[in-house]
Amino acid sequence: MGEHAETGLEKWLLDKTGKDIYFWNFQILMFFTLFEVGAVFFEVIPGTDIRITRYMVWAILIVVGIIKGYGIAAYFMHLRGDPRIYTRTALFPVLFVLLMMWGIGLSNPEAITELPAWCTPDWDYATNR
Amino acid sequence: MMSGFNNHVDNSVWGRAVLMAGAILTIGIVAFAALGLGVGSVKHDEYMEAKGEYKDALKDTSLTESELYKIHHHEIDAHLSYLTYWVAGVTILAISGIYAIFLGVGGFFNSIQPQEDHGHDDHHDDHHDEHHGSASPIVFCTGVLLFLMGFPDFVEGMRALLSQGGTFAPGDMVLSTIGLTIIMIGVANWWREDLPFIGHGEQIATSAPFEGEHIRKAGLWVFIMSEVMVFATFFSSYLRIRTEWCTKWAFDEGRCGVGMTEGDIVMTASDYLRPGGAAGTGDFWTMLPGAVNTFALIVSSYTIVLALKTAKDKDWEAPKGALKFLLPDKKTAVRNYLIATLALGSMFIVLKLVEWSHLVAEGFTVGTVQGSIFFVATGAHGLHVFVGLLIMLYLVFKADTVGYDEENGQGIEYFGLYWHFVDLAWVVIFPAFYLY
Predict the structure, then answer these.
(1) What is the pLDDT of residues A88-108, one digit of tens each?
(2) Cβ-Cβ contacts under 8 Å, B427 against chain A
């Protein structure tokens, strides 16, 4: 969220449309949110007979989440354009978060059956304590 | 009285905060009267009528099952409709009351402080040597510590006061009340230190890795990263217990254990909210508050960007057309963008509590594991939004009095980072808890 000179894509957008990167980022975030809600709201793709399966919903939610997360962090929080140290600071907890997701979130010994093996590490302490 | 963008802030300017508090409280009372007492009481009568009809229908043996279902459905609709208006009215009143206390007490506290002599401030260059550091956050954190230490007793005391059970003991409230008082003093003092700040004296880091960067900005990023860890604990806990549940989807896919029947299916919040969810209660209207809230946070992220952009723009010009009325000059434009952000954030809290009341009415309570993780995770996020709104109140006040420009606009920038983070957390929470 700082101020910096527009370069590359940002400058091109500003020159071509008269609107800055924040405006377009906002539009993209709104569009993808609509897409996200629509994916859950509809059971079939509108105008077709194609059923939106749970796996398709997962894929949409994850991909849209990544796009929205990038849009907010890179442009609204201004990691693109600010000194690299801020990006490095922002990425610092990622390793811990991933460890928590895998080591805690996906390692439930009582989890529903047939999850992939990597989701349920065979940790003795978890099953025999 | 200060003039324009210099740093002479007379005590009398704080009186404006008390006036703003009065205006906010008035809006809250009017909204409560209209929604809670006006529409709410009509809806309550309709609900009571529908409830009576359903009671009678249960005794009527001539009714078919589908007729009974219709009457029951009508009763549920009437109940939820009543809850919508009542909870919205009460929430707006409560939020505006807290805003008014926060702004009013802070304003009053500062307006009665001994007036400082600003005679030497005529030479602006003097301020290059002053720093913008403050001990107020430490005072504030001490207050939070005491408040949280006394919080369990405080809840018991409040329950007794509101006749929700238990016996009231004044001692229950002491520690938290001391904590709240210290928080208020810390915040009010913090405001007093920041209000005259016009951008000179921002502390710069002198060593690696943030050398040359504003210390406040670096500190805020480190704080945000600690918040990432907090939300990661919620999310990983949710994942861990979610993988254990035999949800409708897992049951349909044959992924539940041997011998599990449909009666063993665990209902998640999304089963109640999502169209086609297993609870059978989800439709467009149950999905709406969460979806509107998602859009509200994104729009509020954009309005705060616009506030900063306007503040930093040296060549800002008022827009032409209808917007000229809302954004007549730079100072008003910044303030109005911040008010828009405040309004959108407040709407988020109101809709969230309306949605919670519907979930509880339908049986999805905090007393279950799935309810517990849902209410704790989304509640923690809601608390972050609310804390942000309290900070934004001050930003609106400063924008209305001293004003923000290209020199001191970083105040909006640093708060904006926190606000965008709250939006970012919702990007993960919304699909995980509401859609999946």
Answers:
(1) 999 999 888 888 888 777 776
(2) 65, 68-69, 72
